[in-house]
Design brief:
about 80% helix; mainly alpha; about 325 residues; single chain
C-alpha cells in the first residue's frame, strides 16, 4: 500500500541484504554441497516470489518507477541464483540444457506478460547456456570422445536459438528486442559451423559448410530474411579461406582423393548458389546487388586453386584454359 511505503522499503532492504549475505557466505565460508545449492534455490525462489508479487500489484498500489525498479532488481538476481542452483545440481554436460530451458521459460513469461526486462533476462540466460556449450561442452568433445551426448545437447540448443529467433521476429517492429532475432540466427549459424567442423572429416568440412550456405541462401530468398542471406555470403568466404588453409595445403597422398572430391563438391554447390541467386533486384536489397557475382567469384577461386594445387606443368595451362572457356560459355 502507498501508506505503508516504509514497510516495502524495509522488505527491499532485507531482500538485498539476504542476496549480499548469500554471495559472501557462499563464496568465502565452507559449507556442504547440498547446503549451498539448497540456499541458492531458496534465494532464487524468494526473488522470483517478490517479482511475482510486484507483477500482481494493482496500478494504484505502486508507482511505475518502483514497480519497474523492484521487478528488475528481483528478477536479475533470481535468474543468477537459479543458474547457480542448476549448475550445482546438474554438473557437467546437462548444465547447458538446463540453462537453456530456464532461459526459454523466462522468455515465455516475458512474452506472455509483456515484460520487456524478462525478455532481456531470459535471453541473457540463453546466452550463458550458449557460451557454456561452446566453451565447455564442445571443447571437451574435441578433447574426449563424448560425441553423441554433446551432439544431442548442441542440437537442442540450436533448435532453441531458432525458436527464440522466431519469437522475437513475431513482436512489433517498435520493440527494441526485435533486433535480437538476427542475433539468434547468427549465433545458431556459428554453432552449426562448429558442429560440422567437429563431426566431419578434415577434408570434408567445406562440403558441409557449402551445403549450409546453400540452405541459408534458399531460406533467405524464400522467407525474405536478409540475415540468412548474409550468413550464406559469410560462409562462402569461410569456405574459400578453409580450402586455402587446409584442402589446398595438405600434401598427404592418403587424403588426396578426399580433398579433390570435397573441393569439387564445394565448387559445384557455390555455382548452384549463384544459379539460385536472382538476377533482378526485386528480392535482394541494394547492398546485395553483386551477390550473384560474389558466388561466381568464390567458386572460380576455389576451382582455380584446386587446379593449381592438383595439376602441374603444361596440363595446368590447359586446365586453366578449359576453365576459362567453360566460364565464358
Amino acid at each position: 500500500r502507498k501508506r505503508l511505503r516504509e514497510f516495502r522499503l524495509q522488505a527491499y532492504l532485507i531482500e538485498w541484504s539476504a542476496l549480499g549475505a548469500a554471495l559472501l557466505q557462499g563464496s568465502f565460508a565452507p559449507h556442504p554441497h547440498a547446503a549451498v545449492w539448497f540456499s541458492c534455490a531458496i534465494v532464487a525462489l524468494g526473488c522470483w516470489s517478490i517479482a511475482a508479487r510486484i507483477l500482481l500489484a494493482r496500478s494504484d498500489e505502486l508507482s511505475d518507477f518502483e514497480q519497474s525498479s523492484v521487478l528488475d532488481c528481483s528478477a536479475v538476481p533470481g535468474a543468477c541464483f537459479a543458474l547457480l542452483t542448476l549448475w550445482m545440481v546438474l554438473p557437467g554436460a546437462p548444465t547447458a540444457v538446463a540453462w537453456t530451458a530456464l532461459g526459454i521459460l523466462i522468455l515465455q513469461f516475458g512474452f506472455r506478460l509483456n515484460v520487456s526486462s524478462f525478455r532481456w533476462i531470459g535471453d541473457a540466460v540463453l546466452g550463458a547456456a550458449y557460451v557454456r556449450l561452446l566453451g565447455v561442452n564442445l571443447y571437451q568433445t574435441a578433447l574426449a570422445g563424448e560425441r553423441v551426448e554433446q551432439l544431442l545437447i548442441a542440437l537442442v540448443i540450436l533448435a532453441a536459438l531458432y525458436y527464440c529467433a522466431n519469437l522475437f521476429r513475431g513482436i512489433p517492429e517498435s520493440y527494441q528486442e526485435r533486433v535480437l532475432a538476427p542475433v539468434h540466427t547468427s549465433l545458431a549459424a556459428i554453432l552449426a559451423l562448429r558442429l560440422i567442423d567437429l563431426e566431419f572429416g578434415r577434408s570434408w568440412v567445406v562440403c558441409g559448410w557449402a551445403a549450409l550456405a546453400l540452405a541459408f541462401l534458399a531460406i533467405g530468398l524464400q522467407k525474405r530474411w536478409p540475415e540468412f542471406r548474409w550468413q550464406s555470403y559469410s560462409i562462402a568466404v569461410l569456405i574459400v579461406l578453409r580450402c586455402a588453409d587446409v584442402n589446398f595445403v595438405d600434401a598427404d597422398l592418403a587424403t588426396r582423393a578426399a580433398r579433390i572430391i570435397a573441393s569439387s563438391i564445394s565448387v559445384a554447390i557455390l555455382f548452384a548458389a549463384q544459379a539460385l541467386t536472382p538476377l533482378g533486384s526485386g528480392t535482394l536489397a541494394a547492398r546485395e546487388r553483386h551477390a550473384r557475382a560474389f558466388f561466381s567469384l568464390a567458386a572460380t577461386l576455389l576451382l582455380t586453386g584446386l587446379l593449381f594445387h592438383e595439376v602441374s606443368g603444361r596440363l595446368l595451362t590447359l586446365a586453366c584454359g578449359l576453365e576459362g572457356l567453360t566460364l565464358l560459355g
